[in-house]
Specification:
The complex is a heterodimer.
Chain A lengths: L2 E4 L4 E4 L4 E5 L9 H4 L2 H9 L7 E7 L7 E7 L4 E7 L7 H17 L1
Antiparallel strand pairs in A: 1-2, 3-4, 4-5, 5-6
Chain B lengths: L12 E10 L2 E7 L3 H7 L6 E2 L6 E2 L12 E5 L5 E6 L10 E4 L13 H4 L8 H5 L6 H13 L13 E14 L3 H11 L5 E4 L16 E2 L2 E2 H14 L3 E4 L2 E7 L3 E7 L12 E15 L3 E3 L12 E3 H11 L6 E6 L3 H11 L3 E7 L6 H9 L4 E2 L3 E6 L6 E6 L4 E6 L2 E5 L2 E3 L2 H5 L4 E4 L4 E4 L6 E3 L9 H12 L37 E3 L4 E2 H9 L5 H8 L12 H12 L3 H4 L13 H5 L16 H6 L3 E5 L2 E6 L7 H14 L2 E4 L4 E6 L3 H8 L12 E7 L5 E11 L2 E6 L4 H14 L7 E4 L4 E7 L3 H5 L3 E2 L12 E7 L2 E7 L7 E7 L3 H11 L6 E2 L2 H11 L33 H4 L2 H4 L4 E8 L11 E2 L13 E9 L4 E9 L8 E5 L4 E7 L15
Parallel strand pairs in B: 1-7, 8-9, 8-15, 9-12, 15-28, 17-24, 18-19, 18-24, 19-20, 33-44
Antiparallel strand pairs in B: 1-2, 3-4, 5-6, 5-7, 10-11, 13-14, 14-15, 16-25, 21-22, 22-23, 26-27, 29-30, 31-32, 33-39, 34-37, 34-38, 35-36, 36-37, 39-43, 40-41, 41-42, 42-43, 45-48, 45-50, 46-47, 47-48, 49-50
Helix pairs in contact in B: 5-6, 5-11, 7-8, 12-14, 18-23
The chains are: A alpha+beta, B alpha+beta.
């Protein structure tokens, strides 16, 4: 059972308080974009996901806590959370993820 | 003393005799004995029958790795525990154990015919054999497989015992209380931070308990254990847990511990906690699980009396039991010599040591010579003799071809050691192959964890002690030197197929003892094309029994790797999964048993329904009144009466379970416009509208009536089962797609009790109780809502109808629900008011053609398909699902449509789910047009009615179709799905 850091509560809580909510940073086309999208483009938005082997940007919902949706970077191979961040903030760059991973390792070494 | 008990050996308490029964016969053992050690002390080796061939089996091991000696512990009705390992079950006064997998008894087992025909049971037997003819399935194959399947007796009654669960945290969790674990605990205790040490056995000490001659720093090992335990039990920060198995290691150092609290206690009372599941989150984990000795794979290696050398050593060292009078030792590893020497020193005759290797170290040959033990090198055992116990074995020397038969009543084998990586692997720690010890060892950690002692390849007691000490220290506080008098741990060789002059096909060389997988089976699987070790495992079932392949995995791997022609490290290792040892459902369930297993939600009116004879049905987590039978009525009669009473005069229904969400804020209408297909901006305050919700895929997701309480406030209702997912759906969009909207969502399902009043007398019933609302049809028309008071209580009163009758839904704060219900029941007597349940509600709505989301729709139905295009706004630029509704597939011809069906014979009530075709005589497979979604007897119409999803249904009005059933095909006519009062006149009764 994971321990997940909720960026709104700013606290690590047990996975039992959370629900997974799919891939992050998939932006819904707005009312102007939708009518001019082909079926193929629309189905890509609807159904096609990256299914990444490695560090995956995904959403979680703190439904038994503060009720907020947030973003996370989780490694799908090692099942390790690298970082979590608030909804609406931009996709994390590879460099930001590297820094977070190194900080985690350094924190762990301290304990 | 029993015949095989050795005076002065072992740590059982010979002053405390304990009587127990095994298969009805009484045996005596001592406090500290297991069932296995006590039976062996009486000379009884036969303890079980194997799973597939029903071969007689004795113990292989002395601990939790045991594959053979599985017994059932019978403590009375509902308290039978099957598949308990006799090697770990402590005896207690009155213990009642039974052998398994045999009929009529252990010595004579009818099932053993499988053994005689074992040539017919190769790997993949079931897959290959039970294929055809199809007609054999019901009468021949299935009963046969059912009879063969399963280990031990299934429970026949509810388990009356109590199981507990708890959460815990610690700084350091140490798993395994042998020398490495104890040394780690001693070092970790000094930090002052919380330490938990767990061990599956009743006593801490691990291998030190079984090797009494060992001295640590000049003192007997037992004294060192006693001293260590004294220190640890005094330390306030240390928790010692025995009889506790770490069954699984999960993410972020979350470990499940199952503590067996009363498994060793006589007459354990019902109501006392039997097991407790501790869920521990540890900062760091030290794994000191030790290693398990590997059997040798040779013809006849499963005869009772054939066991691991370390097991024989443990029975002698820990329990003072001789496993026989004359033993043969068969080994490929040096450690078996120490076992042989221990036994010889206890005056057990060692007839010979058979070593597969050409060379043996001098100190071992000297030790053997001193004790008069003959060593035969470069030799193997080619067969064993005896039925229920080994009587003799045949030694074969491949180089010379010499065969010698020697008498023995025990055969001790050793194929080296397998470090226990189970929990390490659960934690996704990496592993690497170590050619020197021919085993996998821990590699890179994935959690804050470390392996110490034999499970890390630190073999030998001194090595384990210092590794444990080093790991236990919080910060590198210096080395501690442990000196012991142990012999060198020694080495061994890999065995991936021992030579034998007997044809492989005729050998019975077992790899997995519990699942009866032989060397031949594994070779056959590879021959048939299973090259991946995961496939070999599944095809042969090697390692898939309740022992999780603790003694078989590496032997299988070595045999498979040779057969595939690849080095072991290229073949890989099968995945270890929790639980480490079989875990009871009781432990997993804990307190969440019976009514606490899953919450049952009840409305405030539920107690009235119960007191008035309602039959209930579960709807999502709710229990709802299904129907209210009067004396002598069955469901059909009750529902027909309830329907008629409602249509004729007055019905009352508890609709409190409807999901309710309060949507509030300056942008509430904008938000509603995006979440529902309908338009909301123009809905006036005090107006209601049927709302239809899609997901982004355009299919119907939920529905319900929505009332506008104020410009910025909507009272949204959802289906009973849909409330949680609708709420999540709304929150998700609000937070992630429409965060610019100023809206707040609150689930209010449980804040309101909702009573639906339907029928021509509905208005008359409530009129006297309502204050502040003009109920006249002109002032309060259909699909409006008003706020006021009823019986002096604030109410949100909706004029809506799910029945087609004049109807009101009265919402009052939940705790007033029952009082209001009872008041209305009393006042309704003059109208012969009839309480009705969900079944009548379903019938009444079907008569009107109203859909139930999830019954008439299935997640692939659009509003258009359901005949509800009117609910989809054409003007709105955007709503969730809008773009998908324009997809080519969703606008194409030939989609299924929701229609009504009338059977030609009005008395036939179709089966829901039944398929619909144009021609019932067409060849199979028929072209199926759709299926029946709702079907009922309609009392007011005096005939059956049905709704169905039918391909191109809107264009098939009045067409005759057929519903084929096993006996005959029913003729049906396609109609519009409104059967009752199509003009809706009944809504407007004055």
């Amino acid at each position: 059972m994971f321990e997940i850091h909720c960026p709104y509560c700013n606290e690590k809580r047990a996975e039992i308080e959370f629900s997974y909510a799919g891939e992050a940073h998939i932006v819904r086309p707005n009312a102007k974009q939708q009518p001019v999208m082909s079926d193929e483009d629309w189905s890509r938005y609807m159904f096609i996901r990256d299914n990444i082997r490695g560090e995956h940007a995904e959403r979680w919902w703190h439904n038994a806590g503060c009720n907020m949706f947030f973003n996370a970077i989780r490694n799908t191979v090692t099942d390790k959370f690298v970082m979590t961040y608030k909804m609406g903030s931009p996709r994390r760059t590879a460099k930001q993820i590297d820094v977070a991973r190194e900080t985690n390792t350094a924190d762990k070494a301290k304990t | 003393m029993s015949a095989f008990r050795k005076a002065g050996r072992g740590i059982v308490d010979s002053a405390k005799a304990i009587n127990f029964t095994f298969d009805g016969k009484t045996y005596q053992g001592f406090e500290g004995d297991t069932v296995a050690s006590a039976l062996l002390a009486s000379g009884n080796h036969l303890m079980g029958r194997s799973f597939k061939y029903h071969r007689p089996r004795g113990v292989l091991g002395a601990g939790s790795e045991e594959p053979n000696a599985l017994i059932a512990i019978d403590r009375g009705t509902g308290r039978v525990t099957p598949n308990v390992r006799a090697t770990t079950q402590e005896i207690y006064e009155g213990l009642n154990a039974e052998s398994q997998n045999r009929s009529p008894n252990l010595k004579f087992d009818m099932g053993a015919f499988n053994n005689a025909f074992s040539i017919f049971f190769p790997a993949g037997f079931y897959n290959k054999t039970f294929l055809w003819p199809k007609s054999f399935w019901d009468k021949v194959y299935e009963p046969f497989i059912r009879n063969m399947a399963g280990l031990g007796p299934a429970p026949t009654a509810d388990d009356p015992d109590v199981y507990a669960s708890s959460y815990g945290h610690c700084e350091t969790l140490i798993i395994g209380g042998g020398p490495a674990g104890l040394a780690a605990a001693l070092a970790a205790a000094k930090s002052g931070e919380p330490v938990i040490l767990v061990d599956e056995n009743p006593q801490l000490g691990g291998s030190l308990l079984t090797t009494p001659t060992i001295e640590i720093n000049g003192k007997p090992a037992r004294d060192w254990i006693a001293k260590s335990l004294k220190i640890l039990s005094k330390a306030e920060n240390v928790t010692l847990m025995t009889r506790t198995t770490a069954t699984g290691y999960y993410h972020d150092n979350f470990v499940a511990l199952v503590e067996r609290i009363t498994h060793h206690v006589p007459n354990a009372k019902i109501g006392k906690v039997r097991e407790e599941l501790h869920r521990i989150r540890a900062k760091r984990v030290i794994l000191a699980q030790g290693a398990i000795e590997r059997p040798l794979v040779f013809n006849g290696n499963d005869r009772p009396g054939v066991m691991l050398a370390s097991a024989a050593q443990a029975y002698l060292g820990q329990y003072g039991v001789a496993v026989g009078n004359e033993a043969v030792v068969f080994t490929s590893h040096d450690t078996a010599y120490q076992a042989a020497f221990d036994l010889a020193d206890a005056n057990i005759r060692i007839a010979a040591i058979i070593d597969v290797r050409d060379e043996v170290q001098n100190d071992l040959t000297e030790g053997a010579t001193q004790r008069g033990i003959k060593i035969i090198r470069s030799a193997v055992i080619s067969k064993t003799f005896g039925t229920l116990r080994i009587k003799a074995c045949e030694i074969y020397e491949p180089e010379t071809g010499i065969k010698t038969k020697i008498r023995c009543d025990a055969l001790l084998m050793s194929g080296g050691w397998t470090p226990s990586l189970h929990l390490w692997s659960h934690s996704k720690g990496g592993i690497k192959w170590d050619a020197d010890i021919a085993a996998y060892l821990p590699d890179v950690a994935n959690e804050n964890a470390v392996c110490v002692g034999a499970c890390n390849g630190d073999f030998g007691i001194a090595a384990a002690l210092s590794a444990g000490h080093k790991a236990g220290q919080k910060t590198g506080g210096g080395r501690k030197v442990y000196k012991t008098n142990e012999a060198d741990f020694g080495t061994g060789v890999v065995n991936n197929g021992l030579p034998n002059y007997i044809d492989t096909a005729k050998q019975k060389a077992f790899v997995d003892f519990q699942n009866d997988v032989t060397e031949k089976d594994i070779k056959l699987a590879v021959l048939e094309g299973f090259k991946s070790i995961e496939h070999v495992k599944r095809y042969t079932t090697n390692g898939m029994a309740t022992d999780q392949g603790k003694t078989s995995n590496l032997n299988a791997l070595e045999i498979a790797s040779k057969a595939v022609g690849k080095p072991i490290e290229k073949v890989g290792l099968t995945t270890f999964r929790p639980p480490y040892t079989p875990t009871t459902f009781g432990a997993l369930t804990g307190y969440r048993d019976a009514e606490l297993f899953d919450p049952t939600r009840k409305t405030s009116i539920d107690p009235w329904a119960e007191a008035n004879g309602a039959v209930f049905e579960p709807v999502a987590h709710w229990r709802r009144a299904w129907y209210f039978p009067k004396a002598g009525e069955d469901m059909h009669a009750a529902v027909s009466r309830e329907c008629k009473a409602t249509r004729d005069s007055l019905g009352i229904f508890d609709a409190s379970t409807l999901g309710k969400i309060e949507v509030v804020g300056p942008d509430a209408a904008k938000f509603m416009n995006l979440m529902y297909t309908n338009p909301w901006s123009a809905l006036p305050v005090g107006g209601c509208r049927y709302g239809l919700m899609c997901r982004e895929d355009g299919y119907i997701y939920d529905d319900g009536v929505v009332g506008r309480m104020a410009e910025d406030r909507f009272h949204v209702t959802t289906t009973t089962g849909g409330a949680p997912r609708v709420y999540r759906h709304m929150e998700d969009y609000l937070q992630t797609e429409f965060p610019h909207l100023d809206v707040w969502l609150t689930s209010t399902t449980e804040q309101w009790a909702t009573i639906a009043i339907n029928g021509p007398n509905a208005r008359k019933l409530i009129e006297p109780f309502v204050e502040g609302i003009d109920l006249s049809p002109e002032a309060f028309p259909h699909m409006k809502l008003r706020e006021g008071k009823i019986c002096g209580v604030p109410t949100r009163l909706f004029r809506v109808s799910f029945t087609g009758e004049l109807g009101f839904e009265i919402n009052v704060p939940s705790h007033y629900g029952r009082a209001l219900w009872e008041t209305l029941m009393e006042a309704g007597k003059q109208y012969e008011i009839c309480p009705y349940g969900t079944e009548t509600m379903h019938v009444l709505r079907a008569e009107k053609g109203f859909i139930i989301v999830g019954q008439d729709t299935d997640g692939t139905v659009t509003a258009h398909d359901a005949g509800m295009s009117w609910a989809v706004s054409k003007k709105k630029k955007d709503f969730v699902g809008k773009r998908s509704l324009a997809r080519t597939d969703l606008t194409a011809n030939g989609r299924k449509h929701l229609v009504g069906l009338l059977t030609e014979d009005p008395n036939i009530v179709l089966e829901e789910g039944a398929q619909i075709v144009t021609d019932p005589n067409q060849p199979i497979p028929m072209d199926m047009l759709g299926h029946v979604t709702s079907s009922y007897w309609s009392e007011p119409l005096g005939r059956s009615i049905a709704m169905a999803m039918v391909r191109d249904g809107f264009n098939r009005m009045d067409e005759t179709l057929h519903v084929p059933m096993p006996n005959m095909a029913h003729k049906v006519k396609v109609v519009k799905p409104v059967f009752y009062d199509p003009k809706g006149e009944k809504l407007n009764v004055v």
